[in-house]
């Protein structure tokens, strides 16, 4: 190899800076600021904002796996909801078994929830592996068949859940130490919502760190843009996809636990109910974009809570209206993934 | 001529209903630059994609170091020591220049594990990549993207480089930079199979040449012979020499 002396490093001022697109973040902050005078009361606004952020974080946890699965392999998985439902039902079993322990104190309550989350993630992740192998793999590249077979898979999954846990709604009460609210002035902030927002933030940070700082994350981001080139560099993208599918399923299981505790009840149809919401979020965010998914989920959560308070009838279609408005502004979503 | 590193024997490729390659035969000698020339639609890109396993040959065999590549998956072919620079460059535009290089260096998990000497050598060939190291690759100019695409292929030692029309759409000054870089690779005895429409570039770099037409190789030989024979150029490539020389 002919070694050529590297040129001297250019002056820092000569190096162009990559600019971050702040507009979607500004939209989120703008929504929160605009809601303050509309709500009228600072305490109500704070309560609604924390509730919206918590809901958004849970939706993000559920949707993040789905957006990566679509981005990486172009797979439309309409069966994602079954992992949510499975996670939520696993939580009823684990939390039911630990109810006495969980009621002893805040730490015990958190430990019980943590156990339920771990079990739900493990079971949903394992089901995800089987789901990918049996249902998704035969229909790679066939969108219509993907929609039909993954929806069918979710229906089968729901029926199996009914066989195991019964067809009726099951209560999933919060452990006693997590019930009630913190009072900040006149604002009541539900304890569980703070916990949910914190867990969501941790998941986002871990996911963002993994995607930005690890080789696996680089491969995922590159694969979302150009699968063929990743393979041409010598990486087996299908193996990576199986891993992402399982991780996405595990995250959906985690989201199921959190959604179930948020609603304090679990029904076999919980997955189908949340499915629409998460598809709205990944479309708003830009298919395949994790940051877009995060901002989109927070927008959906906040808007649902603000409109629910200000105009309950508008809340019924606020998410669809938000999606239409975002797509009119940015047809590829808030943070479009280039090359798609 | 050196022993062939890569050999194609009667390779046929079908894409859907279309029969693109009709028995392609040629060899790429080790340590030399082989130019693959031909008119648009002759099957040059399909040949490279078939070698990489991106499209599977329906008949014939492809031998790399005597081992059959036909039927192997693309990642295995790449891991065997073949680097590919596609016509569209295949740059990951949302990733930075650094991240593109780290990704291409299979043995490196992060920037710190890149071969520093080799990286300095690449910066010497393509100084713009050092300047824009932390910049999203999508913001680079067309020429800089092409430099990044080539840099990715050479950031670790590879036995064979497959490069598809690197000069396409580039300004003459950028093409000169690329020619200089390829000359440095050639001096390093890197084996290259280069698809090119720019005959000046082909003449400047090629040791051997294979000319394709209608999915077949219609001429093989030394590049110098083709460069010296204007009648042959006219017949094989339809070149108007006044416009190219």
Structure, explained:
The complex is a heterodimer of chains A (340) and B (245). In chain A, helix 1 runs antiparallel to helix 2 (42-73), helix 2 (42-73) crosses helix 8 and helix 2 packs antiparallel against helix 10. Chain A has helices spanning 23-39, 42-73, 80-97, 99-102, 106-136, 143-165, 191-213, 215-225, 227-232, 237-263, 270-285, 290-310, 312-315, 318-329, and strands at residues 170-171, 181-184, 187-190, 265-266. Mean pLDDT of chain A is 88; it is low at 1-13. By secondary structure, chain A is mainly alpha-helical. In chain A, the strands form two sheets. A two-stranded antiparallel sheet of chain A has the order 1-4. A two-stranded antiparallel sheet of chain A has the order 2-3. Chain A is globular and about 60 Å long. Chain A has one domain (42-329): ABC transporter involved in vitamin B12 uptake, BtuC, CATH 1.10.3470. In chain A, 72% of the residues lie in helices and 4% in strands. In chain B, helix 3 packs parallel to helix 6 (142-154). Chain B is of the alpha/beta class. Chain B folds into two domains: 1-81 and 162-245, P-loop containing nucleotide triphosphate hydrolases (Rossmann fold, 3-Layer(aba) Sandwich), CATH 3.40.50.300; 90-157, no CATH class. Chain B starts with a strand and ends with a helix. Chain B is globular. A six-stranded mixed sheet of chain B has the order 6-7-8-3-9-10, sandwiched between helices. A four-stranded antiparallel sheet of chain B has the order 2-1-4-5, covered by helices on one side. Chain B has helices at residues 44-51, 74-79, 97-104, 116-125, 127-131, 142-154, 172-187, 199-205, 223-228, 230-237, 241-244, and strands spanning 4-15, 18-29, 33-38, 57-64, 67-68, 82-85, 160-164, 191-195, 208-213, 216-222. Chain B has eleven helices and ten strands. The model of chain B is unreliable at 240-245 (pLDDT under 50). The chains are: A mainly alpha (340), B alpha/beta (245). Chain A binds chain B through residues 1-7, 9-10, 14-16, 18, 213-215, 218-219, 221-222, 225-226, 228-237, 337-339, and chain B through 52, 54, 73-75, 78-79, 84, 86, 90, 92-96, 99, 102-104, 106, 109-110, 117-118, 120-121, 123-125, 127, 130-132, 134-136, 138-139, 152, 184, 187-188.
């Amino acid at each position: 190899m002919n070694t050529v002396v590297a040129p001297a490093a250019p002056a820092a001022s000569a190096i162009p800076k990559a600019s971050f697109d702040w507009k979607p973040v500004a939209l989120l902050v703008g929504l929160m600021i605009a809601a303050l005078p509309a709500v009228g009361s600072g305490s109500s606004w704070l309560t609604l904002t924390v509730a919206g952020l918590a809901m958004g974080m849970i939706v993000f946890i559920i949707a993040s796996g789905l957006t990566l699965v679509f981005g990486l392999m172009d797979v439309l998985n309409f069966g994602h909801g079954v992992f949510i439902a499975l996670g939520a039902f696993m939580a009823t079993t684990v939390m039911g078994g630990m109810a006495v322990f969980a009621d002893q104190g805040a730490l015990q309550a958190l430990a019980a929830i943590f156990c339920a989350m771990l079990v739900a993630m493990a079971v949903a992740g394992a089901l995800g592996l089987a789901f990918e192998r049996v249902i998704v793999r035969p229909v790679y590249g066939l969108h219509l068949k993907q929609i039909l077979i993954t929806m069918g898979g979710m229906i089968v999954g729901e029926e199996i859940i009914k066989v195991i846990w019964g067809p009726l709604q099951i209560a999933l009460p919060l452990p006693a130490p997590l019930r009630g609210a913190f009072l900040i002035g006149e604002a009541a902030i539900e304890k569980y919502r703070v916990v949910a927002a914190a867990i969501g933030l941790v998941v986002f940070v871990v996911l963002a760190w993994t995607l930005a700082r690890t080789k696996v994350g680089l491969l995922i981001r590159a694969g979302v843009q150009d699968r063929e080139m990743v393979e041409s560099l010598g990486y087996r993208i299908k193996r990576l996809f199986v891993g992402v599918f399982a991780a996405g399923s595990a995250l959906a299981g985690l989201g199921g636990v959190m959604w179930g505790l948020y609603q304090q009840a679990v029904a076999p149809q919980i997955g189908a109910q949340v499915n629409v919401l998460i598809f709205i979020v990944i479309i708003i965010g830009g298919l395949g974009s994790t940051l877009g998914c995060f901002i989109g989920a927070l927008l959906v959560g906040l808007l649902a809570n603000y409109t629910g308070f200000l105009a309950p009838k508008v809340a019924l279609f606020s998410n669809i209206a938000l999606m239409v408005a975002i797509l009119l502004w940015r047809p590829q979503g808030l943070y479009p993934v280039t090359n798609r | 001529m050196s022993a062939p590193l890569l050999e194609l024997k009667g390779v046929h490729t079908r894409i859907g209903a279309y029969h693109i390659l009709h028995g392609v035969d040629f060899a790429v000698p080790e340590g030399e630059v082989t130019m693959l020339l031909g008119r648009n639609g002759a099957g040059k890109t399909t040949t490279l994609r078939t070698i990489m396993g991106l499209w599977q040959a329906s008949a014939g065999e492809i031998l790399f170091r005597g081992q059959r590549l036909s039927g192997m998956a693309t990642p295995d072919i790449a891991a065997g020591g073949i680097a590919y620079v596609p016509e569209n460059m295949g740059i990951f535009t949302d990733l930075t220049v650094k991240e593109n290089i780290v990704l291409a260096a299979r043995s490196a998990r992060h920037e710190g594990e890149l071969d520093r000497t080799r990286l300095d050598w690449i910066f010497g060939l393509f100084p713009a990549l050092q300047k824009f190291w932390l910049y999203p690759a999508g913001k680079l100019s067309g020429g800089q993207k092409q430099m990044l695409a080539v840099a990715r292929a050479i950031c670790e030692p590879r036995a064979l480089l497959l490069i598809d029309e690197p000069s396409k759409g580039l300004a003459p000054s950028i093409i000169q930079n690329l020619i200089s870089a390829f000359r440095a690779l050639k001096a390093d005895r890197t084996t290259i199979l280069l698809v090119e429409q720019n005959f000046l570039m082909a003449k400047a770099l090629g040791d051997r040449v294979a000319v394709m037409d209608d999915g077949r190789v219609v001429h093989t030989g030394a590049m110098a012979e083709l460069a010296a024979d204007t009648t042959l150029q006219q017949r094989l490539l339809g070149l108007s020499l006044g416009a190219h020389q």
